């Protein structure tokens, strides 16, 4: 059944291929510096390499926005997002994939009674705006540098042309690699905890984990989208917003590659932390907005006279329409999936304010006197408990989220073999796996019960309070590790005997 659910992830992968390649090679193809087939081949090879070698799994920020807990829900949300993307791409308009996925996730939140983390939503939305502005500014700077180089260069025009052509290929390949490493999780990241693929070993030198195979299959769906449909978007990026020369096509690509690297390179992030400098936050940015921002920056640097603002307005409108469309499609599709096809689109999670929960809330430093009206009550959704606590008008929204997380009934059974099956064990350190092995077979009623048991081991201990950005990074990584094992170890049967 997992293979069937995976189809929607592959569909969104196809739609990403149809959309994202235009962001990388649209300008180069439109200026006839590279043929479409060459661009598609380069994008296909390096996108696959990026996804296979450095596919980083689901984005933590998207995960905090709304963690879809049932594979049927993931299937439906991915399908809704893909349909919205395809609808916009059919018009030849580049769409921001991350925005569309956010819209679909919020649709799931509303349908399942979950609370949308608006802090994460603001973080993600602001990153889209920042990426657009930074890309435009960097492109304008690169434009002046490129113009200066061309004016001062003593190279023959044909030699300049050759250098630009090769640079378009090289930086296009680099951009495709970064896209593969950082966007493949949009397509199939949600299926990582339940990957249907087993570890594959060929001889003694070559092996593929189940997760790597999953990323590889997802990358192939993107490749299919590149070859079958990406040419439509390339025209919009390459000449409909602003007609670019070959040199300016290179400038736009350099600006996009720079912004992608700046906001998504963990290596750069860790390097800045290690030398005591403020690190650029790792946030999910839109490659579409980065490229359109770059094209606009070049147009403004050249006076802004020939920018086709009607096309730019159409693209901007699509960025608003796509997530709204995904939200509505997601909500309707979830209703149909649950009530017509009887798919489990959300786990039957409940929330109980019992004695153990109240004790833990006290230990977290929160006043429990105002919980008497909900004490010993069980709520079917997050939103029900959130609404009750908000009406009391005592706790802040952040405090209410902490209370809800403590009251969540989420039965778990530690089974290390499940990690080994999909190759997820390679995500964890030896010390972390040893700690999990010592807890193997034990049951826990709630997530925080397991987290507390693991915190007895140094490899699973949070640094409290964090003193440096590196400490904060350690805690964030540990939270991501815990989210993976929560999903893998979820054990609904025998719930009442925990």
Report on the structure:
The chain has 498 residues and is mostly helical. The chain has 3 domains: 2-339, no CATH class; 350-409; 412-497, no CATH class. It has 20 helices and 7 strands. It has helices at residues 2-30, 36-54, 60-65, 71-89, 97-112, 118-152, 157-188, 210-229, 231-240, 246-264, 266-274, 287-301, 309-339, 355-363, 382-392, 397-407, 416-421, 430-438, 447-454, 469-489, and strands spanning 200-202, 206-208, 350-352, 378-379, 408-409, 412-413, 443-444. The strands form 3 sheets. Strands 4-3-5 form a 3-stranded antiparallel β-sheet. Strands 1-2 form a two-stranded antiparallel sheet. A two-stranded antiparallel ribbon has the order 6-7. β1 (200-202) and β2 form a beta hairpin. α1 packs antiparallel against α7 (157-188) and α1 packs parallel to α9 (231-240). The two termini are 28 Å apart. 46% of the residues are buried.
């Amino acid at each position: 059944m997992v293979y069937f659910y995976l189809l929607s992830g592959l569909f969104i992968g196809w739609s990403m291929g149809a959309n994202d390649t235009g962001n990388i090679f649209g300008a180069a193809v439109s200026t006839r510096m590279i043929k479409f087939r060459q661009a598609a081949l380069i994008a296909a090879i390096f996108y696959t390499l990026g996804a296979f070698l450095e596919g980083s799994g689901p984005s933590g920020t998207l995960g905090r926005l709304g963690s879809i807990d049932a594979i049927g829900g993931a299937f439906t949300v991915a399908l809704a997002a893909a349909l919205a993307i395809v609808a916009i791409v059919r018009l030849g308009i580049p769409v921001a994939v991350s925005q569309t996925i956010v819209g679909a996730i919020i649709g799931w939140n509303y349908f399942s009674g979950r609370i949308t983390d608006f802090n994460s939503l603001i973080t993600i939305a602001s990153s889209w705006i920042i990426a657009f502005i930074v890309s435009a500014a960097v492109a304008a700077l690169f434009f002046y540098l490129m113009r200066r180089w061309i004016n001062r260069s003593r190279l023959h025009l044909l030699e300049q042309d050759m250098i630009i052509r090769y640079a378009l290929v090289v930086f296009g390949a680099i951009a495709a690699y970064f896209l593969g490493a950082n966007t493949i999780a949009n397509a199939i990241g949600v299926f990582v905890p339940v990957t249907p693929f087993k570890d594959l070993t060929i001889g003694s030198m070559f092996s593929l984990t189940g997760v790597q195979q999953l990323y590889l299959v997802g990358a192939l769906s993107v490749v299919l989208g590149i070859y079958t449909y990406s040419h439509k978007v390339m025209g919009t990026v390459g000449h409909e917003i602003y007609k670019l020369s070959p040199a300016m096509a290179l400038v736009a690509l350099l600006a996009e590659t720079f912004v992608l690297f700046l906001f998504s390179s963990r290596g750069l992030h860790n390097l800045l932390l290690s030398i005591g400098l403020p690190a650029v936050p790792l946030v999910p940015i839109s490659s579409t907005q980065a490229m359109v921002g770059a094209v606009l920056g070049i147009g403004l640097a050249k006076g802004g006279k020939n920018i086709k603002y009607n096309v730019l307005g159409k693209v901007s409108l699509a960025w608003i329409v796509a997530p709204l469309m995904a939200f509505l499609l997601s909500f309707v599709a979830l209703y149909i999936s649950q009530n017509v096809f009887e798919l489990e689109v959300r786990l039957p999670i409940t929330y109980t304010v019992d004695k153990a929960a109240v004790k833990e809330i006290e230990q977290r430093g929160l006043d429990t006197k105002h919980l008497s009206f909900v004490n010993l009550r069980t709520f079917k959704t997050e939103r029900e408990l959130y609404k009750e606590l908000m009406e009391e008008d005592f706790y802040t929204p952040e405090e209410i989220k902490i209370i809800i997380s403590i009251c969540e009934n989420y039965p778990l059974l530690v089974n290390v073999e499940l990690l080994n099956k999909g190759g997820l064990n390679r995500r964890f350190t030896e010390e972390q796996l040893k700690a999990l092995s010592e807890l193997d077979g034990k049951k826990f009623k709630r997530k925080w019960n397991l987290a507390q048991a693991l915190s007895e081991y140094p490899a699973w201990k949070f640094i409290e309070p964090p003193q440096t950005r590196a400490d904060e990074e350690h805690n964030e990584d540990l939270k991501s590790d815990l989210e993976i094992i929560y999903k893998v170890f979820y054990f609904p049967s025998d719930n009442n005997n925990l």
